[in-house]
Each structure stands twice: as C-alpha cells, then as structure tokens.
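Retro notes, structure queue

What went well: the backlog is down to a handful. What didn't: a couple of records were mislabeled last round, so from now on we paste the full input next to the output in the thread. Example, using SH3 domain-containing protein from Holtiella tumoricola:
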Amino acid sequence: MRKTTKKFILCTAVLSMMSVPTFGSIIGAIQSTGAVGYNSEERYIIELAKGTQHKVLDLQEDNDIYLIDVEGKSVYVNKDYLTIRKVITQTTMEGVKVREMASSDGKLIKTLGQGEIVSVLYQNSNWYNVVLEDGTEGYIYKTQLEDPDLKLVPQKEFQAQKVEVLNWSVAKDVVPRGAIVTIEDVYTGKTFKVKRTFGTNHADVETLTTADTQMLKSIWGGFSWERRPVIVHINGRMLAASLAGMPHAGDSLNGVSGNGMSGVLDLHFVGSKRHKEGNIAAVVDPQHQAAIQLAANYKK
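Corresponding output:
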C-alpha cells in the first residue's frame, strides 16, 4: 500500500452515503495493477497491490464503488478493481444439506440448522462452495443461504489462484487463534504443523509436536530470527506468509506443551506488525514483508 497525490475523481455526494450492508463479511481481492483507493477522512489516494485481499465494509453497487478496509483505514475503490473471493454468511432454514459435489445427487456430508455460519468461496452453477466452522468443505444450494445472489469469483478462476496474499486484517480471521495449520518452507519444500495461540499485530504460533520443532530447526539450522517465505496451508487454501524461526517470550506465552520449545514464533502477513519494543510502537517489518512477496510468487 502506498499513499499518492494522484487525482481520484469521486462524487462528494457518494462519499457521504453509507448504505446498510445486508451481509456478514465479504472478502475482495484486487484484480488489476494500477488500482487505487480513496480515504475520504484523511483525503489521500492509496495505491493497492494486485492480489492483496481486504474486507469489504460496504457494497454501493448503484455507485459502482466498494468501501474496503486497508490496514485499519476505510477506503473507497471502484468495484471494477475488486473481485469478491469469500463471503461469510448464514443458512436461512432448517435441514440445509451440505453435499460433496455441486449436485443434488452428491454424497451428503452434513445437515445444518437455521442460522449456521458458513464461508462461501466460489460458485458452481446454482451451488456455492462453502467451508463450515469445523473446516468441512462442501456445496450448498444457493437459495438456502442468506444472500442467494452473491457475486463471486467463478470456480475455475478461484482454483487457479493458488497462493493468496492476505492483508493482516483478513488473515487474522482466516487463521484464528486456536487454528492448526501446516507451514511449508518455500526454499526447501519441507513442512511442519503449528498452532496459532497468541498475537494481535501478527500471529504468534507454536510447533505442535517435538517432531515439528525438529523439522523447524532442520530448516532454519537451529532456532534463528531469519525471516523465511512460507506457505500457510489451511482448509485447502494456500496463504503467502513469512515466519521467523526463533521461539521467544518463554513460559509467559507458551500454549503448547511437550513440543520441544518454549514460547512462540512470529508469523507475518501483509501489513502485520512486529512487537512493540520499549517505547517504540509496533511497526511493519520490511524483512517479513519482502519474504511474503517471495512466497506470493511460489509455484509448486
């Protein structure tokens, strides 16, 4: 994200309008280079990097703009810059069937009650691909969800976008506290599991077992503050991130026992910040951000 003095034409009347959103939470991805947004409160233009993802705060379809969150700031963007990637919504009736395939003939995976929360990833004809709160993935017929007419990335395009580059404001919810994920080191391809246990400005994670800690040390050559590009695997998604291989904070932040290390590791996403040091406020770490960009270009 970069502030600029570039001109941005947007009607003042539009800026004063705030329609009431009827959705739970929407995630959008910047789909083109040269995309810009406008912060009306502080009156500056922001250049938005292609592929970065942001929470959509308001959809003003009639005005051809969206209001998104960019590192805690409300920013207006032209809707042509943004592709909707995920919607958090809920079921509208009892007995909603989650199926293995996008068909009424698909194997039944689970039956949901009214008001249950699901994350919608993409659309396949009249079916939505969803991830449930327990991580189960399947398909639900669109009329059984709160908004049956979501505007989503088509299935083919969604699945082609292998590595997602998430802003921290989005990533902190995609990888919530308590989540167990697989970390893949970009340089070596080696993997190990971690659990997110703490962290507000970034994710504090801990290896799950002694074997995971040994794998971590084999990659970093022992415990090290080196920032390395990694892929975070969660619920079938691949997220670009950066990890430092040094456990710290000791027993004060030690949510996983018996894993051969004490304390937490720092896992960073776009815009996340490192720890506050003394009177120095938490700031974005340029080495972590550079590693994230390397991870974003990862190819299997």
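Agreed that this is the format going forward. Reviewer comment attached to the example: The first strand starts at residue 2 and ends at 4.
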